[in-house]
Amino acid sequence: MRSLPKLDARLAAAAALVRRGVRCADIGCDHGYLIAWLAASGQIPGGYACDIHKKPLAKAAFTLSEYGVRDRVGLICCDGLMGLQAGEVEDIVIAGMGGETIWGVINAQPWTRDHKLRFILQPMTKADRLRRSLYQNGFALLRETAVVSGDFPYTVMQAAYTGAPPCEVDDAFALCGLLLDDHSPAARRYIAKAVRLVREQYEGLKKAAASHMRLERYEALMKRLEQGGR
């Protein structure tokens, strides 16, 4: 049996959220390890590796050939989802980018507003802005998991378009999402990181003599994050 590409914790968590038997696109595929793993393991029948630069696509082509799935995964040099058409894939992975960039990729194509699609998202930064943007535009988180990679906690989300009216999520959910109800060690580390960030902001506001009302808001947010639950 042919060996599979080795995935780090972030990509392994993303792979676990891809539905079995669907066609998948990996946006910003880099070396192509994720899409190669999905195809070589039999989790998906095929899909697309997409990147805005030709050099990563060349590396992805080598990876796909190495693991015997080059004939099942197309290579597309494009910006975000620009090289894909509606109906070509059912699951879309966007990993390793900032939260605002990820939302920009989704928002740029009107066909992403499709209830059948699933988006597997792994923001490196600004996950709070990504969560807010999703809910402000009719999307929702279906699943979310935390992982630790390189001693840093990250989140991996599965989202879908629901068509729900625009919704403003509260600060705690924006910062930690569904992880608020997750008591795994990785989720606790992710939340602890959020608490440290809020505490740093709180201390800065205290030094700047911010209003009592504003300080109370930060105190309540820290307490809620530490307690968990939405």
UniProtKB/TrEMBL annotation:
Single annotated GO MF: tRNA (adenine(22)-N1)-methyltransferase activity
Annotated InterPro entries: SAM-dependent_MTases_sf (IPR029063), TrmK (IPR006901)
EC numbers, comma separated: 2.1.1.217
Signal peptide (from-to): none
UniProt xrefs under SUPFAM superfamilies: S-adenosyl-L-methionine-dependent methyltransferases (SSF53335)
Superkingdom as given in the UniProt entry: Bacteria
Pfam families recorded: Methyltransf_18
GO terms, biological process: methylation
Keyword tags: Methyltransferase, Transferase
Enzyme class: transferase
PANTHER family in alphabetical order: TRNA (ADENINE(22)-N(1))-METHYLTRANSFERASE (PTHR38451)
Record protein name field: tRNA (Adenine(22)-N(1))-methyltransferase
Source organism (scientific name): Anaerotruncus colihominis
